[in-house]
Amino acid sequence: MIEMKDVSKTYPNGVVAANGINVKIAKGEFVYVVGPSGAGKSTFIKMMYREEKPSKGNIIVNGINLPSIRNSKVPLFRRNIGMVFQDFKLLEKYTVYENVAFAMEVIETDPADIKPRVMEVLDLVGLKHKARMKPTELSGGEQQRVAIARSIVNDPKVVIADEPTGNLDPETSWDIMNIFEEINRRGTTLVMATHNKDIVNNIKHRVIAIEGGRIVRDEQRGEYGYEN
Protein backbone atom coordinates (compact mmCIF):
# COMPACT_ATOMS: atom_id res chain seq x y z
CA MET A 1 0.00 0.00 0.00
CA ILE A 2 2.89 2.37 0.86
CA GLU A 3 6.51 2.06 -0.22
CA MET A 4 9.46 4.43 0.13
CA LYS A 5 12.56 3.68 -1.94
CA ASP A 6 15.82 5.43 -1.00
CA VAL A 7 13.93 8.56 0.10
CA SER A 8 15.80 11.63 1.32
CA LYS A 9 14.56 15.12 2.15
CA THR A 10 16.73 18.19 2.71
CA TYR A 11 14.99 21.50 3.36
CA PRO A 12 16.29 24.77 1.84
CA ASN A 13 17.82 25.73 5.21
CA GLY A 14 20.00 22.62 5.07
CA VAL A 15 18.07 20.55 7.61
CA VAL A 16 18.09 16.87 6.65
CA ALA A 17 14.70 15.44 7.66
CA ALA A 18 14.93 12.12 5.80
CA ASN A 19 18.08 10.25 4.86
CA GLY A 20 17.94 7.07 2.78
CA ILE A 21 14.59 5.74 3.97
CA ASN A 22 13.40 2.38 2.64
CA VAL A 23 10.16 0.98 3.98
CA LYS A 24 7.07 -0.97 2.94
CA ILE A 25 3.67 -0.85 4.63
CA ALA A 26 1.22 -3.54 3.53
CA LYS A 27 -2.49 -3.22 2.96
CA GLY A 28 -4.40 -3.44 6.24
CA GLU A 29 -1.43 -2.77 8.53
CA PHE A 30 -1.56 -0.46 11.56
CA VAL A 31 1.80 1.28 12.01
CA TYR A 32 3.00 3.67 14.70
CA VAL A 33 5.72 6.17 13.77
CA VAL A 34 7.72 7.24 16.84
CA GLY A 35 10.88 9.15 17.67
CA PRO A 36 12.17 12.20 19.53
CA SER A 37 11.10 15.72 18.60
CA GLY A 38 12.83 16.90 15.44
CA ALA A 39 13.64 13.36 14.34
CA GLY A 40 11.80 13.63 11.02
CA LYS A 41 8.47 11.99 11.88
CA SER A 42 6.31 14.81 10.54
CA THR A 43 8.25 14.94 7.28
CA PHE A 44 7.95 11.16 6.96
CA ILE A 45 4.18 11.46 7.41
CA LYS A 46 3.76 14.54 5.19
CA MET A 47 5.57 12.89 2.28
CA MET A 48 2.95 10.11 2.33
CA TYR A 49 0.16 12.51 1.40
CA ARG A 50 2.32 14.79 -0.78
CA GLU A 51 2.38 17.74 1.60
CA GLU A 52 6.16 17.51 1.18
CA LYS A 53 8.13 16.17 -1.79
CA PRO A 54 11.33 14.19 -1.29
CA SER A 55 14.63 15.58 -2.52
CA LYS A 56 15.49 12.10 -3.75
CA GLY A 57 13.80 8.72 -4.12
CA ASN A 58 10.33 7.36 -4.85
CA ILE A 59 7.22 7.20 -2.69
CA ILE A 60 4.46 4.92 -3.94
CA VAL A 61 1.08 5.15 -2.23
CA ASN A 62 -1.87 3.14 -3.50
CA GLY A 63 -0.01 2.53 -6.76
CA ILE A 64 0.86 6.18 -7.41
CA ASN A 65 4.44 7.48 -7.45
CA LEU A 66 4.01 10.76 -5.58
CA PRO A 67 7.14 12.68 -6.63
CA SER A 68 6.18 12.35 -10.28
CA ILE A 69 2.55 13.52 -10.17
CA ARG A 70 1.64 17.09 -11.05
CA ASN A 71 0.49 19.45 -8.31
CA SER A 72 -2.88 19.66 -10.05
CA LYS A 73 -3.34 15.89 -9.54
CA VAL A 74 -2.67 15.93 -5.79
CA PRO A 75 -6.31 16.57 -4.75
CA LEU A 76 -7.40 13.61 -6.88
CA PHE A 77 -4.77 11.40 -5.21
CA ARG A 78 -5.91 12.51 -1.74
CA ARG A 79 -9.44 11.27 -2.37
CA ASN A 80 -8.18 7.82 -1.38
CA ILE A 81 -6.28 9.12 1.66
CA GLY A 82 -7.87 10.05 4.99
CA MET A 83 -5.92 12.58 7.08
CA VAL A 84 -6.30 13.31 10.79
CA PHE A 85 -4.36 16.09 12.51
CA GLN A 86 -3.65 17.19 16.07
CA ASP A 87 -5.59 20.44 15.66
CA PHE A 88 -8.73 18.92 14.04
CA LYS A 89 -8.95 21.47 11.14
CA LEU A 90 -12.74 21.64 11.26
CA LEU A 91 -14.86 24.36 9.63
CA GLU A 92 -16.27 26.22 12.64
CA LYS A 93 -19.22 27.77 10.81
CA TYR A 94 -20.44 24.35 9.65
CA THR A 95 -22.32 21.80 11.71
CA VAL A 96 -20.87 18.39 12.50
CA TYR A 97 -22.95 16.92 9.68
CA GLU A 98 -21.87 19.63 7.22
CA ASN A 99 -18.17 19.19 8.09
CA VAL A 100 -18.33 15.51 7.22
CA ALA A 101 -20.63 15.93 4.23
CA PHE A 102 -18.28 18.55 2.77
CA ALA A 103 -15.66 15.86 2.14
CA MET A 104 -18.17 14.04 -0.06
CA GLU A 105 -19.46 17.16 -1.78
CA VAL A 106 -16.02 18.26 -2.98
CA ILE A 107 -15.61 15.01 -4.91
CA GLU A 108 -19.12 15.45 -6.38
CA THR A 109 -20.75 12.45 -4.71
CA ASP A 110 -24.37 11.88 -5.69
CA PRO A 111 -26.38 13.97 -3.17
CA ALA A 112 -28.66 10.99 -2.51
CA ASP A 113 -25.68 9.02 -1.19
CA ILE A 114 -24.33 11.68 1.13
CA LYS A 115 -26.75 11.70 4.07
CA PRO A 116 -26.85 7.93 4.71
CA ARG A 117 -23.05 7.67 4.53
CA VAL A 118 -22.46 10.70 6.77
CA MET A 119 -24.85 9.36 9.39
CA GLU A 120 -23.20 5.96 9.17
CA VAL A 121 -19.74 7.30 9.98
CA LEU A 122 -21.08 9.65 12.67
CA ASP A 123 -22.68 6.61 14.27
CA LEU A 124 -19.33 4.79 14.10
CA VAL A 125 -17.58 7.61 16.00
CA GLY A 126 -20.47 8.01 18.46
CA LEU A 127 -21.67 11.44 17.35
CA LYS A 128 -24.84 10.75 15.40
CA HIS A 129 -26.83 12.56 18.10
CA LYS A 130 -24.71 15.72 17.71
CA ALA A 131 -24.96 16.06 13.94
CA ARG A 132 -26.56 19.52 14.13
CA MET A 133 -24.07 21.02 16.58
CA LYS A 134 -21.15 23.28 15.67
CA PRO A 135 -17.53 22.34 16.47
CA THR A 136 -17.36 25.14 19.07
CA GLU A 137 -20.11 23.35 21.03
CA LEU A 138 -18.06 20.15 21.28
CA SER A 139 -15.24 18.96 23.50
CA GLY A 140 -11.78 18.43 22.04
CA GLY A 141 -12.34 14.68 21.92
CA GLU A 142 -15.64 15.13 20.12
CA GLN A 143 -14.03 17.47 17.59
CA GLN A 144 -11.38 14.84 16.89
CA ARG A 145 -14.13 12.28 16.35
CA VAL A 146 -15.68 14.58 13.75
CA ALA A 147 -12.28 14.90 12.09
CA ILE A 148 -11.97 11.11 12.00
CA ALA A 149 -15.47 10.74 10.56
CA ARG A 150 -14.56 13.25 7.84
CA SER A 151 -11.34 11.34 7.09
CA ILE A 152 -13.13 8.02 6.51
CA VAL A 153 -16.41 9.12 4.94
CA ASN A 154 -15.08 8.51 1.41
CA ASP A 155 -13.87 5.02 2.40
CA PRO A 156 -10.13 5.71 1.91
CA LYS A 157 -7.58 2.96 1.43
CA VAL A 158 -5.22 4.65 3.91
CA VAL A 159 -5.70 6.86 6.96
CA ILE A 160 -2.69 8.95 8.01
CA ALA A 161 -2.84 10.45 11.49
CA ASP A 162 -0.29 13.00 12.76
CA GLU A 163 -0.36 13.17 16.59
CA PRO A 164 -4.16 12.63 16.69
CA THR A 165 -4.25 12.37 20.50
CA GLY A 166 -1.70 15.13 21.13
CA ASN A 167 -4.24 17.65 22.46
CA LEU A 168 -6.48 15.17 24.28
CA ASP A 169 -6.68 13.90 27.85
CA PRO A 170 -5.74 10.23 28.49
CA GLU A 171 -9.31 8.89 28.72
CA THR A 172 -10.36 10.60 25.50
CA SER A 173 -7.21 9.37 23.80
CA TRP A 174 -8.19 5.77 24.52
CA ASP A 175 -11.65 6.42 23.05
CA ILE A 176 -10.04 7.77 19.87
CA MET A 177 -7.79 4.72 19.68
CA ASN A 178 -10.79 2.40 19.93
CA ILE A 179 -12.22 4.13 16.85
CA PHE A 180 -8.93 3.76 14.99
CA GLU A 181 -8.81 0.09 15.92
CA GLU A 182 -12.29 -0.44 14.47
CA ILE A 183 -11.36 1.43 11.27
CA ASN A 184 -8.29 -0.79 10.92
CA ARG A 185 -10.31 -3.96 11.61
CA ARG A 186 -12.52 -3.01 8.67
CA GLY A 187 -9.47 -3.19 6.38
CA THR A 188 -8.12 0.36 6.22
CA THR A 189 -4.34 0.80 6.40
CA LEU A 190 -3.50 3.16 9.25
CA VAL A 191 -0.25 5.07 9.84
CA MET A 192 -0.06 7.11 13.05
CA ALA A 193 2.75 9.40 14.26
CA THR A 194 2.58 9.69 18.04
CA HIS A 195 4.40 10.65 21.22
CA ASN A 196 1.92 8.68 23.35
CA LYS A 197 4.04 6.03 25.05
CA ASP A 198 1.12 4.38 26.87
CA ILE A 199 -0.90 3.86 23.72
CA VAL A 200 2.01 2.36 21.77
CA ASN A 201 3.00 0.06 24.62
CA ASN A 202 -0.54 -1.13 25.39
CA ILE A 203 -2.18 -1.37 21.96
CA LYS A 204 0.43 -3.38 20.13
CA HIS A 205 1.14 -2.78 16.46
CA ARG A 206 4.15 -2.39 14.22
CA VAL A 207 6.49 0.39 15.37
CA ILE A 208 8.76 2.38 13.05
CA ALA A 209 11.22 4.55 15.00
CA ILE A 210 12.88 7.52 13.29
CA GLU A 211 15.95 9.37 14.52
CA GLY A 212 17.97 11.90 12.57
CA GLY A 213 15.86 11.26 9.47
CA ARG A 214 16.66 7.54 9.46
CA ILE A 215 14.64 4.48 10.40
CA VAL A 216 16.53 3.05 13.39
CA ARG A 217 13.98 0.43 14.43
CA ASP A 218 11.14 -1.42 12.68
CA GLU A 219 9.42 -4.01 14.89
CA GLN A 220 6.20 -5.94 14.74
CA ARG A 221 4.31 -5.47 18.03
CA GLY A 222 7.06 -3.08 19.10
CA GLU A 223 7.27 -0.66 22.00
CA TYR A 224 7.66 3.10 22.18
CA GLY A 225 11.25 2.98 23.41
CA TYR A 226 11.65 6.61 24.51
CA GLU A 227 11.10 8.56 27.72
CA ASN A 228 8.46 11.24 27.35
Automatic annotation (TrEMBL):
InterPro entries: AAA+_ATPase, ABC_transporter-like_ATP-bd, ABC_transporter-like_CS, ABC_transpr_LolD-like, Cell_div_FtsE, P-loop_NTPase
Membrane topology: Peripheral membrane protein
Keywords of the record: ATP-binding, Cell cycle, Cell division, Cell membrane, Membrane, Nucleotide-binding, Transport
A single GO cellular-component term on record: plasma membrane
Subcellular location: Cell membrane
A Pfam family: ABC_tran
BP terms from Gene Ontology: cell division
SMART domains in the record: AAA
A GO MF label: transmembrane transporter activity
Quaternary structure annotation from Swiss-Prot or TrEMBL: Homodimer. Forms a membrane-associated complex with FtsX.
PANTHER family the record matches: CELL DIVISION ATP-BINDING PROTEIN FTSE, IMPORT ATP-BINDING PROTEIN
Recorded family membership: Belongs to the ABC transporter superfamily.
UniProt protein name: Cell division ATP-binding protein FtsE
Native species: Peribacillus asahii
UniProt gene name: ftsE
